[in-house]
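pinned: reference chain
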Amino acid sequence: MASVSQTLNEIREEMRELRLLYKELVNKLAPVEEATKEEKRAIKQVDEVASEEELMKALAVHSRD
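pinned: its structure tokens
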């Protein structure tokens, strides 16, 4: 049983190392960037929703062009 336990512990340690390597690779390929103040504001801001009438007017204008 000791050898099975030891083997499992070795596998766990190797998995931890692989996760760390993978994390480093991902950070190099797609680094996490802090959002700018403007981006944070845009995320929190409530979006304005256009009405059906506004959409139809906009589509009518563009379909004539």
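why pinned: Residues 54 and 60 are 10 Å apart (CA to CA). The chain has a mean pLDDT of 89.
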